[in-house]
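Q: What does the predicted 3D structure of Sugar ABC transporter permease look like?
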Amino acid sequence: MQMRALAGYAGTYVVLAVAAVLTLGPFLFSVLTAFTRSQQFAQEGPLSIPSPPALENFVSLFTSADGFVTPVAVTVQVVAVILVGQMVFSVLAAYAFAQLRFPGRDLLFWVYVATLMVPQVVVVVPLYLMMSEVGLRNTFWALILPFVLGSPYAIFLLRENFRGVPTELMDAMRIDGAGTLRLLWHLVVPLNRPIIVTLVLITVVTHWNNFMWPMVITSGPEWRVITVATSALQSQYNNNWTLVMAGTTLAMLPLVILMIVFQKQITNSVGDTTMR
């Protein structure tokens, strides 16, 4: 029995190790190649260890004519505005669907949530035509308007958590004279801080990595986001893979840092949601 248990544990760890290599291997390859000089990469191949590690690829990204300064700045602005808009409108909408009473509330909620089932590619052409008709193509507003007014996923998740707020606490605050906004910002939001932090991270990751819509609605370098800029590197520098990998490494670095810093909050939010 002990041998079978040991064999089972060993098999489990082997499978997990293989999965870890397959998952983390591409990222490790990207980082190693980003710090490899182009001459070494050409001579020793893609699996060579940087000797010594070099920053010339990252310097080239920010000093070239089509560098990453503008895409990074544009991406940060887009993500910041969308994040603020989505959090504000999603929290307000989720609170209304969870705690307020009005005709057609549940029907409106489920119709809105049903839009989660619609693939993004289906709405790209209608959105593009709408933006073009009002003269917003290739502008900052075109990048943020389809996403800034809330997210069906965020509203659904927040609504389910807001419904779990004890009614005794809400009734006590109402007796003390608290209005709707005071209940929301001083009771509901603080009690659901972990899930809100998780939604902040999901929103940042989603729109930092957004590629299809920015590629369709913008043209030229003025409003190019980091994902489109990275894609342009692959066509512009097809043989200079060290530079391309430096771009991909730079694009994913902020997200890795965010996940490391806020991993505890994510774990807490998942645990709280599961218990509810």
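A (community wiki): The structure tokens above were generated from the sequence. The first helix runs from residue 2 to 34. The chain has a mean pLDDT of 85.
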